[in-house]
Amino acid sequence: MPDPIPSKSPAPRIAETTAGKVLTALLALFYLSLATTAAGGEWHTLFLPACLLAAALLLFCFCIIRGDKIPSPGLAGWLALGLGGGYFFLRAWLSPWFYYESVADLGLITTAMVMFMAGAYAGAGDGKKSILPLLAAFLGLLNALLWGYQNVTGTEASWFRPDYSLFGTELRNIGLFGYKNFSAHFLSITGFFLCAYSMASARKWGAPLFTGLALILVSFTCSSRSAFPNALAGVTLCFFIYTSSVFRNNRKFYAAAILFILLLFFGAAYAVLDLANGAGKLGSLLDIFSFGSRLDLSKLAWALADQAPWTGHGSRMFTNLSTEFFSGASLPNFAHHEYAQAACDYGYAGLGLMLALLALFLFSGFRSVLKLADGHQRTNPLGPAAFCVLCIAAFHAYGEFIWHNPALLGASALCCGITCTASLSRVKASRRAGRWVQASAALLLAVLALCFAFLAFPVWKASLHAAPPSSNGRLPMLEEAASASLDPDLVRRSILHAAGSSPAPDQARLRELERQEEEAELLSPGNHGMVAAKSLLYIHQGRYTEAEQLLRPYLDPGRFDDRMFAWTTIYTNMLYSWSAISASRFPGQALSMALTAQEIMSAQTDQWLFYGALDPEVRKEHDLRLSELKMLILTLQSRGAVPDSSWRK
After folding, report:
1. Interatomic CA distance for residues 635 and 622, integer angstroms
2. Dihedral, 410, 412, 413, 418 alpha carbons, nearest 10
3. What percent of the chain has pLDDT over 70?
4. Which of 57, 190, 251, 616 is the one with CA 20 to 30 A from 221?
């Protein structure tokens, strides 16, 4: 009798192989670098994460080619990747303001897609040996320790962000993210992830629970308005998860517990609103729930969305369009309302797609919580934990741009992926077609990550030479980074620093800066932020007529020296210099310029009194210039000069 043909051994699951474990480590390092060296979200800080991401994606392709089994993300996962990922990826690629701002959105979308698939694979297991709770605890505690170190020592230094010295940005004790609301949000979601994971696990009292509670308490010390609403939502959800896990099949207690916690939530919310501004007024309610004056930003975003309702204006276009239309004193960088900004940038079609996918993920996460009440099966505890984090993020996105930060977006995308597979009774392995689709997408994203790393390398290299924000040694690094990358923001900052340096730059240097500005403007056409920089170059070259014509459309007395652009201040300084130079030859025109500058600067003073004084040095310089203008006006009037506004023509 012939010997039986030995059967072919089944392919191993990717999580059980050495390559799969290395892939897990690379993805963990990728997110670790996102939350530390790239926590501020600037595109050039993504050099290290991009290198790690490319290595992880190429290793993933190798595992597929070798034949390792990979879990399928399920119908919800394929819909999210195909419709959501494909739509937003193409829209960002075809954005009219493509180069750096669109590249930043491409980086965000790539991060979201990779973290989503990582979450889908994590949710396919039982969650008992997952490194996600350990990673959440480590990063949350690291953020809290840095926050405490900055407060105790009074330092503004970050352990991971030397690029702040390149930009001259002051940290002012705000943890890993350089922004108190982001640091508070990260502490909240890591804390509640650990708490919800404990509530859904068999062992409920342990290190994850107490670590999570400590992180939640620290979030209240960040002076962020988001800490309290995040905590209300998180406590409600954790109680919901706890009752589902402990009181199985007890529908009466289940319903009573949910009703009690909802009443507690709305009662506490009403009390806080009543103490703050009076809950009886609709305006106060809207103002509180939109986090203060950000209601104006969301109104502007919705108004801009109505101008291009179907497809939107393009990736990150709110940032550019708001510069021209926003009437407030300080100009915004984002809408601080993710849903309104999605409608502005990607149209109501993009917003509808985003909301539909979010509802799908929340429904899948809710199913994983309901499985806790089934006494016949034990669900993956990562599912309820991810549902808790996703609910908090969806609520907080109403008043903050958390999904425009790669680390916070990655955390939300990871939880979306977990909810897709953790709620399934059985996760199937991907078939041949699905495997090759994932391999092709991973290869494409790996190439994009390598291109991103190549693009960010010059600026990242320059940022490594740390220097204090007040040091003159920062300027050469900034000039090197700007000339190597032609990033419009870096070129603009380089021009501003050169224009304010002592001694003043010579004509050759000014011409070189003008060349860089023109090339940067070609890469990002319609970038309003370059106007201030170009006008300064014209002023230093004595080209006052060109500078005046360039700045006039942006003239608004309400826009004083803010942190982004200062067109009004530059315009008044230009008029003063122009009037002083032309006083002997054209006294009438000089008097008209000086009177115009005085009127604008007086309006700026009124704005300062209304909004509160800014930097005392800025106010002192402003008052000194205003007194110099008054002296010039008195001198010209004593000589019999009559205002002549022909200079405007």
Report:
1. 20
2. 120
3. 78
4. 616
Q: Closest by alpha carbon to 84, among 438, 354, 417?
A: 354
In the numeric block, which tokens belong to residue 179? Answer: 């922004």
CB atoms within 10 A of CB 7: 6
- Render 550-599 in DSSP notation, one character per residue: HHGGG--TT--S-SS--HHHHHHHHHHHHHHHHTTT-HHHHHHHHHHHHH
Q: What is the dihedral of CA 254, 255, 256, 261, to 10 degrees?
A: 90
- Residue 221 burial by CB count (10 A; 0-12/13-18/19+): exposed, middle or buried? middle
- Return the pLDDT at 189: 92
Measured distance CA(411)–CA(172) in Å, rounded = 25
Look-up of token digits 């099966």: 377
Helix, coil or strand: residue 69: strand
d(CA 474, CA 168): 8
Helix axes 616-638, 567-582, angle to 10 degrees: 30
248 with 219: CB under 8 angstroms?
A: no
> Residue 457: pLDDT band by 50, 70, 90 thresholds?
confident
pLDDT of residue 563: 42
Backbone angles phi, psi at 640, to 5 degrees: 85, 15
Is 162's pLDDT higher than 50? yes
CB atoms within 10 A of CB 311: 14
| Residue 432 · residue 33 · CB < 8 Å | no
Looking at the DSSP bridge assignments, the partners of residue 69 are 13
Nearest CA among 568, 585, 596, 590 for reference residue 635 = 590
The pLDDT score that the predictor gives to residue 160 is 73
158: which 2 tokens?
A: 């970050």
Q: What is the pLDDT of residue 249?
A: 57
Tokens of 80: 């999210």
Report CA dihedral (50, 52, 55, 59) to the nearest 10 degrees.
-120
Average pLDDT over residues 17-21: 83
SS3 309: coil
Q: How far apart are alpha carbons 123 and 368 in whole angstroms?
A: 10
One-letter amino acid of 155:
T
Q: Is residue 614 a contact partner of residue 560, using CB atoms and an 8 Å limit?
A: yes
Give residue-wise pLDDT tens across range 224-283: 777 888 888 888 888 878 777 776 655 555 665 566 566 656 655 554 444 444 334 433
What would the two tokens of residue 619 be?
């106010």
Compute the distance between CA of residue 578 and CA of residue 543 in angstroms, rounded to an integer: 9
Q: How far apart are the C-alpha atoms of 21 and 31, rounded to whole Å?
A: 16
Angle, helix 382-396 to helix 227-246, in steps of 10 degrees: 150
Distance CA 177, CA 36 (A): 8
- pLDDT tens digits along 458-510: 777 777 765 555 555 555 667 777 777 777 777 887 887 777 777 777 888 88
The single-letter code of the amino acid at 182 is F
User: Under a CB-based contact definition with an 8 Å cutoff, are residues 311 and 349 in contact?
Assistant: yes
- Distance separating alpha carbons of residues 478 and 489, to the nearest angstrom: 11
pLDDT in tens, 382-406: 888 999 999 999 888 888 888 988 8
> What is the Rg, in whole angstroms, of the alpha carbon atoms belonging to the chain?
28
Which alpha helices (DSSP H) does 247-337 contain, by range? 251-276, 282-289, 294-307, 317-325
Residue 523: which residues within 8 A CB-CB, separation 6 or more? 98, 99, 100, 486, 488
pLDDT beyond 90 at 58: yes
